[in-house]
Specification:
207 residues; 5-stranded mixed beta sheet; disordered N terminus
Length: 207
């Protein structure tokens, strides 16, 4: 009976090791940035965007305007209307409501023609990138897409010590990423999804 119990315990430990359930004994590959459900695909207008406003049967109030740094736009008959943080459909309804004071049942379509996006949704790349900058977030954007946009990393970068700083539910997270493995070794498992507002920090390598 004792022999059977020992054999059973040995098999149980072996199964746990195989499944990676014993943290002290099993070796796990670190998870860089856990995958999360992608954000909504509705684009939010931001300062610097260009919007084409089309008012059906009213070409005199149809035009293309840029969103000001304060997030507002000015059009004929409508002054200082908030555009930043709104979708194109929401902005169109806001313009219809404002124009309703002057035009009977206006029908408005808003088309975003120049994309920058709200500051809160931009991805910022700082440190040892070839071209550190802020990027407009695109749905489905990955770490590789970001690195292509900034021209990769410099020769002084500590690629595998880079990290993504992300704010989720009001709490800041630091997620390690392996840029050198991705760029130099072609390790596609190091390519993680980006989220609006992420900051990619690439430190300098100290010899």
């Amino acid at each position: 009976m004792k022999l059977q119990r020992r054999e059973f315990a040995k098999n149980l430990v072996g199964a746990a090791l195989a499944l990676g359930l014993l943290d002290g004994c099993a070796t796990r590959a670190p998870t860089a940035a856990p995958e999360e459900p992608p954000p909504s695909g509705d684009y939010l207008i931001g300062p610097g965007d260009s919007v084409n406003i089309i008012v059906w049967r009213n070409p005199e109030v149809s035009l293309t305007v840029a969103v000001r740094p304060d997030g507002k736009i000015t059009t004929p008959l409508v002054e200082d209307l908030q555009a930043s943080g709104r979708t194109s459909s929401e902005l169109a309804r806001d313009i219809e409501k404002a124009l309703g004071k002057f035009i009977q049942q206006p029908v408005v379509t808003v088309i975003v023609t120049g994309f920058v996006g709200p500051y809160s949704e931009q991805i910022r790349v700082i440190g040892e990138a070839a071209k550190p900058q802020a990027l407009s977030y695109r749905l489905g954007m990955s770490l590789m897409d970001v690195l292509i946009a900034v021209g990769g990393i410099t020769e002084f970068a500590a690629g595998n010590k880079a990290s993504i700083i992300r704010v989720k539910d009001g709490k800041q997270q630091t997620l390690p990423v392996r840029l050198a493995d991705l760029l130099k070794n072609g390790d596609i498992s190091a390519n993680v999804s980006m989220r609006p507002g992420d900051v990619l920090l690439i430190p300098e390598s100290f010899f």
